[in-house]
Amino acid sequence: MAKSPAIQPEAGTWLAAWLEACAELDRLQASNPMLDAVIDQVDGRRIRIGDRWLNDFASCNYLGLDLDREVIEGIPAYLDRWGTHPSWSRMLGSPVLYEQIEAQLRELLGVEDVLLLPTLTHIHAAVIPVLSGGGTVLLDARAHKTIHDGAVVARAHGTTLKRFAHDDPEALEQLLRQNPPAPRLICMDGVNSMTGNPPPLAQFAALARAYDAILYVDDGHGFGVVGERGREEPCPYGQRGNGVIRHLGEDYDNIVLTAGFSKAYSSLLAFVTCPSPVKRLLKITASPYLYSGPSPIASLASTLLGLQVNASRGDELRAMLYGKTRRVLDHLDKLGATTLNTSSFPIIEVPLADADDLDSVGALLFERGVYATLAFYPGVPRQEVGFRLQVTAANTGDQVDELLVVLDELADRQIMRPTFR
Ligand SMILES: Cc1ncc(COP(=O)(O)O)c(C=O)c1O
Questions:
Q1: pLDDT by residue (tens digit) across 37-51?
Q2: C-beta of 260 in contact with ligand 1 (< 6 A)
Q3: Is 144 near ligand 1, meaning CB less than 6 Å away?
Q4: Which of 21, 300, 302, 380 could bridge to 97 as Cys pair (CB 3.0-4.6 Å)?
Q5: 118 Cα: distance to centroid of ligand 1 (angstroms)
Q6: Alpha helix segments (H runs only) across 83-119
Q7: Which of these, 56, 33, 65, 14, lies nearest to 393 by C-alpha position?
Q8: If you average pLDDT over residues 248-257, what whole number do you get?
Q9: How far, in Å, is the centroid of ligand 1 from the Cα of 58?
């Protein structure tokens, strides 16, 4: 059915410019079955859209805990005890489950304190303005859109906003040398949601410490997947899944880590690490703490159960995840296809030889039973337009086999950008 635009903003307004930027997404949503889809059924890591079953390589449930029997079977007992939803704002009161999760997180991460809020989007909008209040946000040019939005809220409250080139410590240092107003908050992704790669964290952390700034990292995609390195580690993702800061051997001096449970832990909950006095400050300033509804009990329960699985089987799940991810990466390599992924983490973006083919490639993937995320411009730079594959521990070996056959076909048809390595 043809779509009609819901509103026609006046030319020259912010909304008109924004809709212009979203034109490609609008076009794809109207024409491509991969986007804005109605999922009718799930069976393991397979989904049904209408009468078509697809292998799901677009899920962020990296550890497969959304399908884990220990998690699923453990949730009803929490519902019996707490009901489905605590509707008090957190300002009034919170189930003790929050305290239990925070205590476990402090131990897992090795930080002084953490504050839980429902999502990273809430955290960025509430915490970035407070930590940068009256000073400067220095924003990596490819920071996630929700970080960017938090920085814009900060700017509305008087914070100066400056951008530096993605993953470029020298560009950041140039800005810091100009002595921008303090407090200075440097904001970026941990494991990047599109490239799958971590930033040069040691260099950014050193700059934060040298220039009296705070490095604010969103590790939504790394937490639960990568962790501290150790002799016993069963795979290069490290152990315990305690995030990119520990994985890269940094401590938390001048670093604030934000991450969520909504990806690797399949639960609607997120956290920000902070010293206890900052937590007190956030409890009286952060709107999502004061005025929003909390996470549902099922999500608090699946977080606690997920932490239990992480302690007992997490490293085993991560080793499976690594093995499956490597199969896809090695195959792309063998086919001579480019991917942005240099980390072996389970986010694999595959740019197209011709960005204009995105719609037809999306349709072909759908036809061949591969559900992937379409990476469109300007969500990614034009030379990176393509599709993103995500691997989870719940994808079966057979599903990976089937994916590799489809990649063979794409290579035969010269659809993927070749490597020139
Ligand atoms: C890097 C990153 N940050 C933040 C978010 C938003 O997370 P939330 O759903 O917890 O608001 C996402 C969501 O995909 C993300 O990829």
A1: 999 999 999 999 999
A2: yes
A3: yes
A4: 300
A5: 11
A6: 97-109
A7: 65
A8: 97
A9: 14
